[in-house]
């Protein structure tokens, strides 16, 4: 199983890149969002990958983070959602947007992805709503593993220069994960805690851990 590739981008197609890894070229299909975020042709990049194996087909799909790869694996577990539909959803919403839409039951946001109709969007939400909080809670630890954007070791070897790494954690993902952990420790069910955090992040994407917990507690408090 090929789980990660790092190399030079030799070619950029409309939905894929050709990645040269030690002289071997790998065609890796990516979402439109990921394609826009990747560096230019000739530069080095790394992607986490998922290999689709069929009787007459081998295709690699690439993701900039482990969190996004986990969402891809969840999405493709839904009947009717193949790799292309999953990439369309992730390309339209990103992993964070996908998490919020599913947690909040917002199937219309899923439907906004090209090629995903209303019935299929509702099925995605219905089947994954209970699983979404788990991935949301993992986001912080996953980002600890996957951030920074991977720096290619080949580039370092060729230049002889010391690579400089970016910060290893995504503040937004860490805040989300920490807030969910705090809320569940306080006795709230993971699903209701995740829904509260998702609603707050929709209104205030830059909320830190303290703000998330405070707003979530206010939201979850009994009314009247």
TrEMBL record:
It comes from Aliiruegeria lutimaris. The lineage of its organism: Bacteria, Pseudomonadati, Pseudomonadota, Alphaproteobacteria, Rhodobacterales. Homotetramer. Forms an RuvA(8)-RuvB(12)-Holliday junction (HJ) complex. HJ DNA is sandwiched between 2 RuvA tetramers; dsDNA enters through RuvA and exits via RuvB. An RuvB hexamer assembles on each DNA strand where it exits the tetramer. Each RuvB hexamer is contacted by two RuvA subunits (via domain III) on 2 adjacent RuvB subunits; this complex drives branch migration. In the full resolvosome a probable DNA-RuvA(4)-RuvB(12)-RuvC(2) complex forms which resolves the HJ. It is found in: Cytoplasm. Has three domains with a flexible linker between the domains II and III and assumes an 'L' shape. Domain III is highly mobile and contacts RuvB. Residues 1-64 are annotated as: Domain I. NCBIfam families: ruvA. Residues 157-168 have a biased composition (Polar residues). GO terms for cellular component: cytoplasm; Holliday junction helicase complex; Holliday junction resolvase complex. GO terms for molecular function: ATP binding; four-way junction DNA binding; four-way junction helicase activity. InterPro entries: DNA_helicase_Holl-junc_RuvA_I, Hlx-hairpin-Hlx_DNA-bd_motif, NA-bd_OB-fold, RuvA, RuvA_2-like, RuvA_C, RuvA_C_sf. Keywords: ATP-binding, Cytoplasm, DNA damage, DNA recombination, DNA repair, DNA-binding, Helicase, Hydrolase, Nucleotide-binding. CDD domains: UBA_RuvA_C. One of its GO terms (biological process) is DNA recombination. The RuvA-RuvB-RuvC complex processes Holliday junction (HJ) DNA during genetic recombination and DNA repair, while the RuvA-RuvB complex plays an important role in the rescue of blocked DNA replication forks via replication fork reversal (RFR). RuvA specifically binds to HJ cruciform DNA, conferring on it an open structure. The RuvB hexamer acts as an ATP-dependent pump, pulling dsDNA into and through the RuvAB complex. HJ branch migration allows RuvC to scan DNA until it finds its consensus sequence, where it cleaves and resolves the cruciform DNA. The gene is ruvA. This is Holliday junction branch migration complex subunit RuvA. Belongs to the RuvA family. Residues 171-224 are annotated as: Domain III. Residues 73-92, 108-127 form the Helix-hairpin-helix DNA-binding motif class domain. Residues 157-176 are annotated as: Disordered. The keyword Transit peptide does not apply.
